[in-house]
Design a protein that fits this description.
alpha+beta, about 30% strand
Length: about 130
């Protein structure tokens, strides 16, 4: 059964070790487990193991801190708070999107809003 979900929270970037790539970071955070044969990449294994606890966006892992809010209609917002952390609020119907898809849409909207602010002379350099 499909449901509507509404979450508000922050994505906190997870620091990589120096010289560590995304695949190595995922493997480390998984506890150096071997990659199961039904996965092609550590990133996919990591996302399945930690669904709604972590997300991968633009090659970075973010820890998800969220609260559930009473759901009614779809919307997707995000903004950069400090350095690399991103506040978000998403409300979506899970018959058309999953949590990671909703986060991606919120980040796309954040970029569009910042471009519009920049074009209107309001700053908006958090793209």
């Amino acid at each position: 059964m499909s449901e509507t979900f509404h979450y508000k929270g922050v994505l906190k970037i997870v620091a990589k070790y120096e010289g560590e790539n995304l695949s190595e970071q995922c493997q480390r955070l998984l506890g150096e487990r071997d990659l199961p044969s039904y996965y092609d990449r550590y990133e996919d294994y990591f996302l399945d193991e930690y669904y709604q606890k972590f997300t991968i966006q633009k090659g970075n892992i973010y820890r998800i801190e969220k609260e559930a809010i009473d759901p009614y209609s779809d919307f997707f917002t995000a903004n950069i708070v400090t350095g690399e952390d991103i506040n978000f609020e998403v409300r979506y119907f899970n018959g058309t999107l999953d949590f990671n898809g909703a986060i991606e849409e919120a980040i796309r909207n954040m970029k569009k809003n910042n471009i519009n602010k920049f074009m209107n002379g309001e700053g908006g350099n958090n793209i």
